Amino acid sequence: CLAVPDKRFTFDHGREPTLLRELIGAYLARPSEPTPAQVFDAVAKAVVVDVGAIWVGAPAVADPMPEHGPHAALGLARGLVAHGGYHDVHCTVWTPASFAEVMGEAIRLDLLPFGFASVDPTRPGEAEFMATLVKRSAASPEERARSVPSLDRERHHDFPKPGRRSGLARLKQAFTPR
Known about the structure:
Layout: E1 2-5, H1 20-29, H2 36-44, E2 47-48, H3 51-55, E3 63-64, H4 70-83, H5 96-108, E4 114-120, E5 128-135, H6 141-145, H7 153-156, H8 167-175
Antiparallel strand pairs: 1-5, 2-3, 4-5
Helix pairs in contact: 2-4
């Protein structure tokens, strides 16, 4: 069982979701800590997000996080390369839909001996979604990949848009499985 931060509702809001190529790079290089590129991306794009306001339908205004931004991020990344050290960041960034898609691709490549039991979209008022994986090493990669849920990108990836219906109503609809 995994509790995965949903970038739409966290300080990762401004970052792009992780792509398969990034997971392949990490799988092959086996870094033991965040890379300078990951630190730069996380610090350069860190924002303050009011999760409560988003869930009641307010527009997603994401102000830059104090003492962050591109200049601070570049200085930090340079320092890590020059002097070493560790800076804690989210090395991967997900929405429920992007997580299911990329994990499905990784399963098809036989990089994970798991299948999906479920992906529960982010619940109203929360900033994480839940994923349950099941070890199915005896099954073929294609069999395991068929367990990956198909999530609607508009409901489980795109950022909720203010509209006629309240944000809470829209997001409750997004949580309801099809």
